[in-house]
Amino acid sequence: MIELYDILLVAHVLCFVYWLGGDLGVFYASGLGISSGISSQARQTARKIWHWLDQFPRVCQPLTAALGATMADIQGWLAIGFGGLTVVWTAASIWVFNVLYLYLKSDHPGNQSLIRKIDYLLQWVVAVTFLFLCFQAFTGLGPIEDRWLAVKMLIFAGTIFCSFASRITMKPFGPAFKRIVAEGENSEDLLILKRSLYRTRVPILGIWFLVFLAGAIGVAKPF
Question: Sign of torsion, CA 8 11 13 16?
Fold first, then answer.
């Protein structure tokens, strides 16, 4: 008989798959978008593709954590109960809402600045909370019963910090891309695009490694 834990496990694994798979698509499409000698229309098409694909890892990141916390509570690895899970899923839902709002309203600025600030603050709160819970676990306190789970939570916090780093490295990308699309290709802006993208690949590769490591630890449960 299929139990709730089994359903959550399948969803958890799928989130890992779409998290990494979406990032791979973004990685490839963005590389095409900064190629020299292509038309503005081709660049815009590439941007639409990578922007759409980028929503998969952005949505799967909070869902991975929420599903993992629910599974851990069911198995007794994380003692937070219904109240704690309510907080976890509320935070994950707000996170997903922020992602989808910023994507669907990308052409209509409106409240984007406010939503971005809320999204940034929420992710900081989640990362710091995870770090605090990990500290408690390593000192024998808190709701986490197994250290392998604490390490996975520490790794998840690491993916958030890598995301913050990618925001910084991608900051020059948007203005330079808009200029090239509007005014045509020029060597200066093209160099900005390439440098920004190549620098961003460092934290993105960091996320890939951390997600792989978290998955391996979740399967092996080595400590």
Answer: negative
Tens digit of each residue's pLDDT (9 = 90 or more) over 81-104: 999 999 999 999 999 999 999 998
Whole-angstrom distance, CA of residue 142 vs CA of residue 135? 9
37: DSSP letter:
T
Q: How many CB atoms lie under 10 A from the CB of residue 183? A: 10
Side chain identity at residue 18, one-letter code: Y
Structure-token match 């200029």, residue found? 179
**Domain with 135 in it:** 4-220
CA angle (56 as vertex; 213, 51 as ends), nearest 5:
120
Structure-token match 């392998």, residue found: 148
- For 189, residues 6+ apart whose C-beta sits below 8 A from its C-beta are 176, 177, 179, 180
Q: What are phi and psi of 78, to 5 degrees?
A: -135, 110
Q: Per the structure, how many domains does the chain have? A: 1
Give the gyration radius of the chain's Cα atoms.
19
CB atoms within 10 A of CB 74: 14
pTM of the model: 0.91
SS3 content of the chain, % helix, strand, coil (to 5): 85, 0, 15
